[in-house]
Design goal:
heterotetramer; A: seven-stranded mixed sheet; B: alpha/beta; eight-stranded parallel sheet; 12 helices; binds flavin-adenine dinucleotide; binds flavin mononucleotide; binds FE2/S2 (inorganic) cluster
Chain lengths: 298, 315, 315, 298
């Protein structure tokens, strides 16, 4: 095989402007936090870290985590080497809970941590979700509509708790019933979709979203501005949501992911393409307004 | 210098003069591995009080704005990482207007890293940036493996000499030449930089590298190629630091895979006068201060002679 | 070819023709990282039945006997190691008299790696070794970073071309040129080798590196400098494999930090036609067979097209 | 500092001839062996590996060991990366016991292995000790004199057991009483020396050796050929023994150490300088006749 030879920098997109966004600053320096909770949640694992010195994060913010020992533990010094990004899923006193989906060496090592073991935590990082009434182009009294796919439910859990009664609906999509067990973290009032139909709607969670928005606009042709969509999940799902919401003029806040090395703006590695250029997700995200994304952001 | 030269435990004075700069301790950052402005937004003003480096080296800026390479830009490797960031920056004008004023408020000397794609561009950068009072020194990035010109200028002694001829007359500020490791022999290039009037050399930049995605079998990075950094390259960086420091008498700033004070001490042993932290900043934002303290402890263990050698004014 | 081309689990046929050799599977050893004679003494005749490589590449031999460098010769680094072995060997005569007859009894094709310190020495080596019926092919080590001449000949396209001019007429056997990674750009050197009549290129040799002993602060290896190998260099080796394979049409033997079948597949993805195992042999003496099996499994996962591409005769 | 610039190969010593020596060949390939014993012995740790498939090693042979997991476990893929060499200390059925002195990352990791954890073992490797009557220039009926320093007792334990009644004396040197507790592995009939005098002779174990040889020759001017010295310990101790034995014409077999990458002759890294050139300790050692060593072997 011959690989494409082009290594010319792509110059056009430029660098996007800094985002204000709600932000709790992080203390300078990572903290060694003991694991005080480890429990399965469906096919995921919830790991709780006792972060005594740390501030309370805002929903949507994230932490860079690495085990204090055994990070890079394969024979021959293989990965993980860099810390990994995780949205805060719940806050219980000084304990920060992270919901972990094992997809590679870093998540495997983190999910296997024993109680009392310590992990390095840096955070809270990035900007959090903006409440419905703060979102540009939302109607007064707008309510939240939460849409999650798979592990994307993590930041929605804490956001759901923070919004308390102000959530009109929660729609979650999972691979199958086993994964869907994690939906319990968002309470009882949840619409479910699964790929295999083992529970809830057999199909995409975006079907549920479209249906919901349809119902809203049936009632009142102007009512879609009375909801703000908050979504987190795989890129294809988020792009579908972006298109659906753009079409209907519904404001949406998306929690995006990109591989990160540092989490605090140092490496310029975590960019996503927005309308005004490349934006670092770690300092100017991970929450991005759907309307800010470039058509070809994926 | 306002920085505490003592480690918190009341360690030894590690301050030094390097290429005309006064440093509280011999640890700075590698260009492009710490963004002081983003870090201020993330960590707040706490960063000012315990800034992790004795001088701040900016990300490389170029004459015109650049968005950088298509993502993905990062790939993890055994004991290291590949980046294909592609020098995103606001361009000379944008930098002077937006970033420089804020960087000027830091309590440590500011080194601005510059690159261009021809001699005139380089000369203009050096002249314009060098004229700003906030700027203590300039670093010439002639070594970035992501951008064609950088590679060419820094991989040949004659090219390096010609570049210095063009830019040296444009500023009285100290010039640091950052060398690329993608060469057969780094000594002649260090010598060319010195003879051209460089006040110091820094090394190493990243090594050209490729990442393959296992699932697709295709290059994993948007820009295909990238640059390798981290502990994996340390032994190579040590060799080049030794080569360079044995062949020039200007100070040498050593970097490449430094994670802790012991690693830093290896660079001093190999002839460096100062070290820089790159990739380790990503894992630990205050790695600079930690390395300072660990270095002080390691020097203390070696005894007084060792300490003097490290903090002695550059040859 | 007498070697089983099937993995024990009855995997796919991975046999291939490479530079005139028939290989049971596309995995051989890196020169100097497996001593078949010592291994026979250690493991007994069991080694003959399941020889770990599809061809055996000898340690580099030189015109005159060499004891090699003063110990220590080994140093561990993050995800790798530095060696300063220094090409110990019995010299041409000693090799022909003592080692070659025994190596000739192996069931796999024998590749003899040769080096010399001038063109005539190289030519004599190639002619004399090439004339022996036990020898299937020769590898020219123009890249060993421990020996001055090697470095020079392999780090410049013209030098490489001149060397090939001298040695190519001396044998009809396949010539493999082993490239050094201590260069700015490996493509012109691969091209020079091809134009000079090389039947294949292999890469990479080790990267020049330095180890410092923490206690003394002095170089840890007897010979001061050494060469870095192991997973730490894999991303660099992949890039150079890609560069070389995009610029020549002779087959490319890729190596550098391969530990498992997935690593091997990365080299095929980058354009290699065969891979070699080096440092990993030290950790696992049957790494060659393990990599073969893991590679077969990884190819099966990718599907039929992938398999064909790897085992297809070299372009 | 400027380092010496010389990197010229040292050519003169040449390559030493292959050594026959007693040798049990190793099965081809490393084996994953569970830990079935872990106990402190003085300041050392004895780790037992169940090596069901493997052959019985000869005293003096060694194994290359690496933990199956967590080898290279520091943050950032630091050492250990290569396997480490260990003399077999005892054989109990299929269990191989290794006595480990923690001096760095590899020994630390191995000594910390839990029961049931698995380690890769390659071996037996190298050549073993030759019994007194097989040693060149020993007198018929010669008896063994074992001299160990610190962790150097490891191969002497199995050799002592193999020689059974044929050992005339065992002299061991340790840093202090705590380390000296390991002497119990060689039974009761042991002369001890410690650096701090906390038990036995205050001084070097070579003092005990000289004394012993003195006593032998007092009895009979020709009796020194009736003992063969077997020694293992730090290089300075072994060099002293080499000189003492050369002076008195006593044959000595030394178990040497050198950093090893492979253990089976592949890397040429483990050489020691002998009178006829560089010898690889892993295939032509680690047991070397004192008289074979070059004066400047250290
Ligand atoms: C802001 C943010 C919040 C997140 N929140 C959560 C959360 O709450 N819960 C959660 O489970 N996850 C979360 N993630 C995702 C999580 O960070 C990743 O799943 C994790 O980093 C994967 O690490 P790993 O080592 O397990 O797998 P990796 O193997 O590192 O990651 C798997 C992915 O990386 C790619 N990959 C393979 N090899 C390499 C390599 N050598 N270098 C780089 N990439 C490679 C693969 O293509 C694959 O897509 C979040 C990510 C971000 C950015
Ligand atoms: C044949 C043989 C038999 C042995 N038998 C035993 C035994 O029975 N019991 C036992 O406890 N030990 C034995 N050893 C010694 C044992 O192999 C070493 O102590 C072990 O390899 C040390 O590994 P480590 O990772 O703990 O320490 P390392 O840090 O690898 O070793 C410590 C030594 O290595 C040097 N060093 C430091 N950094 C590095 C580096 N980056 N690369 C290379 N070297 C470095 C230091 O100078 C120090 O001398 C034997 C050795 C041999 C050759
Ligand atoms: C993400 C990233 C971005 C970098 N950007 C620059 C840059 O803009 N200019 C430059 O001269 N070097 C740049 N470098 C190179 C570093 O300054 C440093 O030379 C190199 O990473 C080796 O040091 P390390 O191993 O400690 O990271 C960059 C390195 C990384 C990892
Ligand atoms: C101990 C050692 C000895 C080597 N000796 C030789 C040699 O004699 N000739 C040669 O061409 N390459 C030699 N090499 C280089 C290897 O063949 C190989 O090119 C290099 O190690 C990279 O592959 P790896 O990372 O898989 O080890 C040696 C490498 C090592 C580690
Ligand atoms: S992760 Fe480094 S800049 Fe965002
Ligand atoms: S340890 Fe590799 S040859 Fe002895």
């Amino acid at each position: 095989m011959t690989l494409p030879e082009s290594d010319v920098a792509e110059l056009e997109p430029g660098i996007a402007a800094a985002q204000p966004g709600p932000r709790t600053p992080a203390p300078l320096g990572r903290r060694a936090c003991p694991v005080t909770l480890s429990e399965p949640v469906g096919r995921y694992r919830m790991i709780g870290l006792e972060d005594r010195g740390g501030p309370t994060p805002l929903p949507g913010q994230f932490y860079m985590l690495a085990c204090a020992d055994g990070w890079g533990s394969d024979l021959g010094g293989e990965r993980p080497y860099l810390p990994r990004a995780f949205s805060v899923c719940r806050v219980r006193g000084a304990r920060l809970d992270f919901l972990i989906d094992v997809v590679g060496p870093g998540t495997e090592r983190l999910a296997s941590m024993a109680l009392g073991e310590r992990a390095w935590a840096l955070g809270p990082l990035g900007i959090g979700f903006t409440a419905p009434d703060g979102v540009e182009s939302s109607a007064p009294g707008a309510r939240a509509l939460l849409v999650g796919g798979g592990i994307g439910i993590a930041p929605l859990v804490i956001w759901n708790e923070a919004l308390a009664g102000n959530v009109s609906n929660v729609a979650l999509g999972f691979r199958d019933e086993e994964f869907a067990a994690a939906a319990s973290l968002l309470g009882a009032n949840v619409s479910l979709a699964t790929d295999d139909g083992s529970v809830g709607h057999a199909g995409l969670v975006t079907d549920l979203l479209s249906e919901q928005l349809e119902r809203n606009s049936d009632r009142n042709s102007d009512r879609n501005s009375a909801v703000v969509v908050y979504a987190c999940g795989p890129p294809a799902m988020l792009d579908a949501i972006r298109r659906i919401c753009t079409e209907r003029g519904v404001p949406a806040q998306l929690a995006l992911e990109q591989a990160m090395a540092c989490g605090y703006g140092a490496c310029f590695g975590c960019v996503v393409r927005t309308r005004d250029g490349y934006r670092r997700l770690c300092v100017d995200g991970p929450i991005v307004a759907a309307s800010d994304l470039h058509e070809e952001w994926q | 210098m306002t920085l505490a030269a003592q480690s918190p435990g009341g360690g030894p004075d590690l301050s030094l003069r390097l290429a005309g700069l006064t440093l509280g301790f011999p640890v700075i950052n590698g260009s492009g591995t710490f963004d002081a402005i983003a870090a201020l937004r993330t960590f707040g003003d706490g960063l000012r009080e315990s800034f992790p480096f004795a001088a701040f080296v900016s990300k490389t800026i170029t004459p015109h704005p650049r968005g950088g390479n298509r993502p993905p830009r990062l790939w993890e490797t055994p004991a290291g990482m590949i980046n294909s960031i592609g020098l995103p920056n606001k361009g000379l004008e944008g930098f002077l207007a937006h970033d420089l004023p804020e960087l000027g408020t830091l309590a440590v000397p500011l080194v601005v890293s510059v690159a261009a794609f021809d001699h005139d561009g380089f000369a203009r950068m050096v002249e314009t940036v060098g004229a700003r009072p906030e700027v203590a020194a300039l670093e010439l990035n002639v070594s970035c493996p992501n951008v064609k010109s950088g590679c060419v200028m820094g991989s040949d002694p004659r090219e390096t000499a010609e570049l210095l001829e063009h830019v040296r007359p444009r500023t009285g500020k100290p010039l640091i030449v950052k060398l690329t490791p993608n060469v057969s022999d780094i000594a002649p290039i260090a010598i060319a930089a010195e003879q051209g009037g460089a006040d110091a050399v820094s090394l190493i930049n990243t090594l050209r590298a490729l990442a393959i995605d296992h699932v697709s079998g295709r290059p994993a990075l948007g820009a295909i190629r990238g640059g390798l950094s981290g502990p994996a390259v340390r032994a190579i960086a040590l060799d080049m630091t030794h080569s360079a420091s044995s062949s020039v008498s200007v100070p040498v700033i050593g970097m490449g895979g430094i994670q802790c004070g012991r690693d830093a001490l290896e660079f001093f042993d190999a002839g460096a006068n100062c070290v820089a932290i790159g990739t380790e900043n990503f894992r630990d934002p205050v790695a600079g201060l930690r390395v300072r303290d660990e270095l002080a402890a390691a020097l203390a263990e070696r005894g007084h002679g060792a300490l003097q050698r490290v903090v002695a004014p550059a040859r």
